[in-house]
Design goal:
Elements (H helix, E strand, L loop, with lengths): L18 E2 L13 E5 L4 E9 L3 H4 L11 H7 L5 H8 L3 E6 L14 H12 L3 E7 L12 H4 L3 E7 L11 E4 L5 E4 L6 H16 L4 E6 L5 H13 L7 E6 H10 L6 E4 L1 H12 L9 E5 L5 E5 L16 H14 L3 H16 L2 E2 L9 E2 L2 H21 L1
Parallel strand pairs: 3-4, 4-13, 6-11, 9-10, 9-11, 14-15
Antiparallel strand pairs: 1-2, 2-3, 5-6, 5-12, 7-8, 12-13
Pathway: Amino-acid biosynthesis; L-leucine biosynthesis; L-leucine from 3-methyl-2-oxobutanoate: step 3/4
InterPro entries: IsoCit/isopropylmalate_DH_CS (IPR019818), IsoPropMal-DH-like_dom (IPR024084), Isopropylmalate_DH (IPR004429)
Subunit structure: Homodimer.
């Protein structure tokens, strides 16, 4: 496997007083581990998990990385090796590329790459998944919605990540009274699980436009009835936030009919999984959207939401901007480096203003580039910002 420094990770070197350590030489036995960012008084360890498919293309390779997902199944026989989880837990933040692919679709559940994703979320204790979906002015024509519907959309979905039907017990396979095979899962939430994600959502809404919509299915599901009760009871702690409730089927419809009515959405694990992907397509491409998964303490997990896209892996067609923007969320939510995060986001905006587009967001009159070139163009902008800062 050939390893070389990818320019994308250099977007983390944002301050004139902060520089990334140079990439360590690649070795045949240890191609993968963590990036160290240095500041005058602070060091950061950022573990990189490129994963599968286009993951290695959109995640930069610096000092060291760890294997996860299908790549780890092939190398170690498990989707999340203990060494990988230990490195992630010892980091200040974790940047994940993508996992999964056709190759592992027929594996038993415990050997599926997606199992590793659930395991690392649980292992890091990250329970709040923040998924922004904003339609950038430069890309409004890439949305499949009418311009007047898509223009100005700016939504944050706050998804509960470690509870609900993906983790609830009992679960498994059985037989019914007719002798037929059955499969069953349990949707269960405790009051404390609902309360902690709700407080995160209220705080996020407070930093945005002060509106929070809680999405549930309280007309049918007992777990949602408790969800709505707890969310409503916590509203008194945030009198400055306008709280509303919506059933998930209506929310799915409203995201297409009138997405601008939403500011911040909070919902459970499975509804958030679905609605955040739906919201992502308002922007024109899932390749533009980052995410952050955070907990009460310990490192956060930051990743693009586009998946591994194995059909285009290795072809230099992937859009790296979601990963770059995930690095910006890492800086903001994982390391508390707000100014650095803004500089990354500004570099992405300027690169789009300069007309560079990967295939998923291309339109006539713009410049079609591949994954590597797009990363290089963003890096040029970041470096020009650094030069201005040094000379000012």
């Amino acid at each position: 496997m050939s390893i070389q420094a990818n320019p994308l990770i250099k977007t983390l070197a944002l301050s004139p007083r902060r520089r990334m350590a140079p990439p360590a030489p690649a070795t045949a036995r240890r191609p993968m581990a963590a990036v160290r960012c240095s500041a005058a008084k602070r060091n950061y360890n950022v573990t990189l998990l490129p994963g599968d498919g286009i993951g290695p293309e959109v995640v930069a390779v610096a000092k060291d990385e760890k294997l996860m997902g299908g790549a780890a199944v092939d190398a170690y026989g498990v989707p999340l090796p203990e060494e990988t989880l230990a490195a992630a837990q010892a980091s200040d933040a974790v940047l994940l590329g993508a996992i999964g692919g056709y190759k592992w679709d027929n594996n038993e559940k415990h050997l599926k790459p997606e199992t590793g994703l659930l395991q690392i979320r649980a292992g890091l204790g990250v329970f709040a998944n923040l998924r922004p979906a904003a339609v950038l002015p430069q890309l409004v024509d890439a949305s499949t919605l009418k311009k007047e519907v898509a223009e100005g959309v700016d939504i944050m979905v706050v998804r509960e990540l470690t509870g609900g039907i993906y983790f609830g017990q009992p679960r498994g396979f059985g037989k019914n009274d007719k002798g037929e095979d059955t499969g069953f899962n349990t949707e269960v939430y405790s009051a404390s699980e609902i309360d902690r994600i709700t407080r995160v959502a209220f705080e996020v809404a407070r930093k945005r436009r002060g509106k929070l919509c809680s999405v549930d299915k309280a007309n049918v599901l007992e777990a949602s009835m408790l969800w709505r009760k707890r969310v409503t009871s916590l509203a008194s702690e945030f009198p400055d936030i306008e709280l509303s409730h919506m059933y998930v089927d209506n929310a799915a419809m409203q995201l297409i009919r009138n997405p601008k009515q939403f500011d911040t959405i909070v919902t459970n694990n499975i509804f958030g999984d679905i609605l955040s992907d739906e919201a992502s397509m308002l922007t024109g491409s899932i390749g533009m959207l980052p995410s952050a998964s955070v907990g009460e303490s310990g490192p956060g997990l930051f990743e693009p939401i586009h998946g591994s896209a194995p059909d285009i892996a290795g072809q230099d067609k992937a859009n790296p901007l979601a990963t770059i923007l995930s690095a910006a969320m890492l800086l903001r939510y994982g390391l508390g480096e707000e100014n650095a995060a803004k500089r990354v986001e500004a570099a992405v905006t300027e690169t789009l203003n300069n007309g560079f587009r990967t295939g998923d967001i291309y339109s006539p009159g713009t410049t079609l580039v591949g994954c590597k070139r797009m990363g290089e163009e963003v890096l040029k902008t970041v470096e020009s910002q650094s030069a201005v800062a040094l000379n000012s």
